[in-house]
Design a protein that fits this description.
The protein has strands spanning 3-7, 10-12, 18-25, 33-39, 46-51, 58-59, 67-72, 77-82, 91-98, 102-104, 108-112. The protein is mainly beta and 114 residues long.
């Protein structure tokens, strides 16, 4: 049974930092394209960052230079380091694993507000 469990969400002030973690079980993250997506009410889920098996990372234009995705093979985890957070980064962030099939976590709420 595959499980992706996000953690690290919460309330942060504008300009602050937060790191999301995704703990994977049932898959080996190095064999999957791992990604972080986000969704706000009324909008489609959108890709924030992705790290495929090649290790060549991909980011949404709006987060380039501020967010960093990384993968820990030993811990079988994926992280999203978010710096210089803005109010518009408020969303539920989802961990995603994709190969032939896709798996999703339940999401972690990030609220950027003063």
């Amino acid at each position: 049974q595959v499980q992706l469990v996000e953690s690290g969400g919460g309330l942060v002030q504008p300009g602050g930092s937060l790191t999301l973690s995704c703990a994977a079980s049932g898959i080996i993250v190095s064999l999957y394209a791992m990604g972080w997506y986000r969704q706000v009410p009324g909008k489609q889920r959108e890709l924030v960052a992705q790290i495929p098996t090649t290790g060549i990372t991909k980011y949404a234009d709006s987060v380039k230079g501020r967010f960093t995705i990384s993968r820990d093979h030993a811990k079988n985890m994926v992280y999203l380091q978010m710096n210089s957070l803005k109010a518009e980064n408020t969303a539920v962030y989802y961990c995603n694993a994709a190969r032939i099939v896709e798996y999703w976590g339940r999401g972690a709420l990030v609220t950027v507000s003063s």
